């Protein structure tokens, strides 16, 4: 792929992944990650289906939730299937274009979900603190615009970060010490000004992560004040349960993203990067639907109705 003697540039990368593990360990990883990926796909697909088809879930909160699940499906499909293939085959080579495309999708989808989680916090603020104006403020047109805004900034941000990662020549090593093309690792392989690129990505991570966090905090301060000021009989438990689900997802998502993109590069390494990457590429997307459905009676009821219709349809076809 490259020759240090004549200074030829890198035209492809090798994803190291888990190739240093023993065959039995790789087989165990394959079975484990396949199960986790299947569960994440199944549960997120179910949430997408019921939030888009069940008329009882016709509210902005479930509209946003369906889009979060769709983003999770896109996110894990961008990274995990490739990892599963590399656990089976010995050729871990990916082209320059494939690596660039994968990184763009990871950035675009990840940033879009980050922004959408902040909009969900704002939705909860309006619903709890301004219930009489909720239908007017969070109209269908407004919700569509908010989702479109999240996608727009995510995809634009992906272009910026892809450019900062790949604008320089690659003429060092071509081994990526992870199971997918992750920007902080790929940048270290560049012959260009890696310090400047890392600073830009670090600054971008601060803006992308902290700005939505500010909106989330600003939204939840009056929410918590409103909840604590209610009597138990006025629905404090139900309201707190809904907010707790969203906050749990926020903590999972933002913690893993910060550990990956806001830590100094000197604190990173293959043994640390892979667990962080696994956490936000497969664990978080799998846990999101569990968190939302386990504490939400409406979601549970919709899932039961959806599974009941599926079982009935199968019985009729037989």
Automatic annotation (TrEMBL):
| CDD domains in alphabetical order | 7tmA_OR2-like
Where in this chain does the record put each G-protein coupled receptors family 1 profile domain? 43-292
Q: Membrane-spanning residues where?
A: 27-50, 62-84, 104-122, 142-160, 205-228, 240-263, 275-293
Q: Does the keyword Kinase apply?
A: no
GO MF annotations, alphabetized: G protein-coupled receptor activity; olfactory receptor activity
- In which compartments does the protein localize? Cell membrane
What this protein is called in its record is Olfactory receptor
Organism of origin is Trichechus manatus latirostris
Which classification does the entry list for the species?
Answer: Eukaryota, Metazoa, Chordata, Craniata, Vertebrata
What gene codes for this chain? LOC101357237
């Amino acid at each position: 792929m490259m020759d240090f003697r004549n200074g030829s540039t890198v035209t492809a990368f090798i994803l190291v992944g888990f190739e240093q593990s023993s065959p039995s360990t790789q087989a165990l990883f394959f079975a484990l990650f396949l199960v986790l990926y299947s569960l994440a796909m199944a549960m997120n697909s179910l949430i997408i289906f019921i939030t888009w088809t069940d008329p009882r879930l016709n509210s902005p909160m479930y509209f946003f939730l369906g889009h979060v699940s769709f983003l999770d499906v896109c996110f894990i499909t961008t990274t995990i299937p490739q990892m599963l293939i590399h656990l089976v085959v010995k050729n871990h080579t990916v082209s320059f274009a494939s690596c660039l495309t994968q990184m763009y999708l990871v950035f675009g989808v990840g940033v879009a979900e980050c922004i959408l989680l902040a909009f969900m916090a704002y939705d909860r603020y309006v619903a709890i603190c301004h219930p009489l104006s909720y239908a007017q403020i969070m109209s269908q047109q407004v919700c569509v615009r908010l989702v479109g805004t999240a996608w727009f900034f995510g995809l634009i941000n992906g272009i910026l970060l892809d450019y900062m990662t790949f604008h320089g020549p690659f003429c060092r090593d071509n081994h990526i010490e992870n199971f997918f093309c992750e920007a902080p690792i790929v940048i270290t392989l560049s012959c260009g000004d890696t310090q400047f690129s890392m600073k830009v990505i670090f600054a971008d991570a601060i803006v992308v992560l902290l700005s939505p966090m500010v909106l989330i905090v600003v939204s939840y301060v009056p929410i918590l004040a409103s909840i604590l000021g209610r009597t138990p009989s006025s629905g404090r438990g139900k309201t707190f349960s809904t907010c707790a689900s969203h906050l749990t997802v926020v903590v999972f998502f933002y913690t893993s993203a910060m550990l990956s993109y806001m830590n100094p590069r000197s604190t990173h390494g293959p043994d640390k990067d892979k667990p962080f990457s696994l956490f936000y590429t497969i664990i978080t997307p799998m846990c999101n639907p569990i968190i939302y459905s386990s504490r939400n009676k409406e979601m549970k009821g919709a899932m039961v109705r959806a599974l009941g219709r599926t079982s009935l349809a199968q019985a009729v076809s037989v």
